[in-house]
Input
Amino acid sequence: MNFHRTVLLQETIDLLNVSRGQKYIDGTIGGGGHTEEILKRGGLVLGIDADPEALEFVRERLEAYVKDGRLTLVQGNFRDILKIAKEKGFAEVSGILLDLGVSSHQIDTEDRGFSYQKSGPLDMRMDPSYGFRAEDLINLAGKHELHNIFTKLGEERRSNTVVSGIIRSRRVKAIKTTEDLVGVIAEAYGLNKKNLTPMLRAKISKRIFQALRMAVNGELESLEKALSSVLLLLFSKGRVAVISFHSLEDRLVKDAFVGFSKEGLGTIFTPKPVLPASAEILENSRSKGAKLRVFERK
Ligand SMILES: C[S@@+](CC[C@H](N)C(=O)[O-])C[C@H]1O[C@@H](n2cnc3c(N)ncnc32)[C@H](O)[C@@H]1O
Output
């Protein structure tokens, strides 16, 4: 199984304008796909990821670069990018990359609880040592909180029905696994869980699972915090590149870049977001929906 299929690889690296001997921060190193390309082009990288499994994997895969000092790895959240970068000697860099969301490894690992197609505990934390799990949210959050999460982050039109189903079900027995949750959603939709095809499972569960994951990891809040710090770390003509998969994330990125530009802090390099070519989507369906935006500091 592939740890992760990197999306928009050439497009991102070209737009980051990577050059030999310069420093870069990859705030979401994942399987190290983008980072490896930066290293091959002679850059030095600070690689950050919240997930210890990603770091373990990449430490082994890119061991040679770690040994020769060109790759520094840190487990952490990119919302703390300013602090981490300063501590590691990356306070002035030529480029910063955030490739948002989850890796294929996280989705494909049952016991991380990210997937509605696999059976596992409802966890969904990027960093499994920290914070509340999806199970806690599902069983302890009030009606309004759940409704807000599903409507805002999942754009789920039937969130009232799903929330009522959750409240009814958790009164009888705690909802602990991905299977339990898919069952509750199916029941709320008036469907029999046993008859669900993978397509139907996806149709009814995708938005709810995505919303839960974003809430558990505070994904929008982390992105907002990181965006407010990135320009502080960039040299003049340094670039920040963000790949997003969710309309609210893309909106945050777009608005932040428009705000920087209005303040005269630099130039939007992608007036329209860069999307994967159809050949990439054909080869890697998970790349569908990716949007890349780049900003250059003046
Ligand atoms: C789409 S993957 C990155 C893939 C990588 N670009 C590659 O080519 O292999 C996203 C990664 O970001 C990490 N991540 C998500 N949110 C994070 C955050 N706020 N801080 C640090 N890492 C985060 C996830 O754990 C995951 O490993």
User: Anything to note?
Assistant: The chain has two domains: 9-104+220-297, 127-216. Residues 4, 6, 28, 30-34, 48-51, 54, 77-79, 99, 101-103, 126, 222 surround S-adenosylmethionine (CB under 6 Å).
